[in-house]
Design a protein that fits this description.
This protein is mainly alpha-helical. Helix content is 61%, strand content 11%. It contains 13 helices and 7 strands. It has a 3-stranded antiparallel β-sheet, with no helix packed on it. It is flat.
Length: 343
């Protein structure tokens, strides 16, 4: 499963860079064909940001971030980190290339969560912390350099410069754009829909009508009125469609999964448990602004975690003051820990 995750993450990252190269180097006929192919298959969203720069967003880039957390956690526990530097840069470059604010929102709590776990478990010295910070900065610099190298590659020739890239990134971080305004205009109709049936919800086919500033919608409906059953505010969408028990059930599932993965901290695979838990926090945090948990990607990650959950098998007690607990960590049969402690 870890090999499949790694292969998928590398594939999505490579595809993202290939699409970036195509859209920054070729003419309209190639771009139109490529755009229709990936857009009609619902694989990717390629958006012109101006200045000849494009944003490449693929929904499954979530898995590149999850794998990046695993890789970072593994790098902390291993001595040879140089071989992981380029792979980490590729994954981070994909995250930067996506220019997804939802990803940025999810990265903040999940990154803090992972740093808290690692610092509590390893208690690094000041020198070790400085070394990891330096490694992180190196990865960021290499990832930006990788994107710049793809965009500015001279064959075929194009007129982009480094200043165009910097200007585009600055404009993307502005808060006054169509995507944000449409989200805020959707919020009130969703709350009103929840108030209509807060306990039982409206079912999975429920829809909400709102006014959007999306130019694609304005081409169809000049007044911007749009009815959709796929909503950006993920947790509110769960509430609308499933009732209040829907989001509560997802939160309870997260609690149970985190509680069981926490057992990895006593094993040699502590890095694995920390990375998987951080990935779960990331998906749940990202779901605030982009619906992932009611999507095959988010549900798929929850199912992906199931084989890694430890199972506790109570053993026969030896004496009145001690109990033997055996924790079998799947899928690696060697990760078996037997601990004895007084009651």
């Amino acid at each position: 499963l870890l090999q499949v995750l790694a292969a998928g993450a590398v594939w999505v990252s490579s595809l993202s860079l290939v699409l970036l190269y195509i859209f920054t180097h070729f003419g309209e006929s190639v771009l139109q064909l490529t755009y229709y192919f990936f857009r009609d298959l619902r694989i990717a969203e390629i958006t012109s940001l101006g200045n000849g720069v494009y944003r490449v967003f693929i929904q499954s880039q979530v898995f590149t971030i999850v794998f990046a957390f695993l890789l970072f956690s593994f790098a902390v526990f291993t001595k040879d980190r140089r071989r992981l530097l380029m792979l980490s840069s590729l994954l981070v470059a994909t995250t930067v290339l996506a220019l997804s604010r939802s990803f940025w929102v999810g990265l903040v709590p999940s990154s803090l969560f992972l740093l808290f776990l690692l610092s509590k478990h390893l208690r690094p010295t000041l020198k070790q912390s400085a070394r990891f910070i330096a490694s992180g900065l190196s990865v960021m610099i290499l990832s930006v350099a990788l994107i710049a190298a793809v965009i500015l590659f001279p064959l075929p020739a194009q007129d982009l410069t480094g200043s165009d890239l910097a200007l585009t990134l600055r404009e993307r971080t502005d808060t006054d754009d169509v995507a944000i305004s449409s989200r805020w205009k959707l919020l009130t109709p969703m709350i009103n829909k929840i108030v209509e049936s807060p306990l039982t919800g409206h079912g999975f086919g429920a829809s909400v009508t709102f006014v959007t500033d999306d130019p694609r919608v304005r081409e169809i409906h000049p007044d911007g009125t749009w009815t959709t059953s796929s909503m950006e505010w993920g947790w509110l969408e769960l509430w609308i469609k499933m009732g209040i028990l829907g989001p509560i059930a997802f939160l309870y599932a997260a609690y149970e999964i985190l509680k069981r993965l926490w057992a990895y901290r006593w094993t040699e695979q502590a890095w694995l448990g920390f990375g998987l838990m951080t990935g779960l926090v990331f998906v749940f945090a990202t779901h605030f602004f982009s619906p992932y948990l009611n999507h095959p990607i988010g549900l798929g990650y929850l199912l992906f975690l199931v084989p890694f959950l430890p199972t506790k098998k109570p053993a026969e007690a030896h004496g009145s003051l001690s109990v033997i607990e055996t924790i079998h960590i799947r899928p690696q049969a060697a990760a078996v820990v037997t601990s004895s402690h007084p009651r």
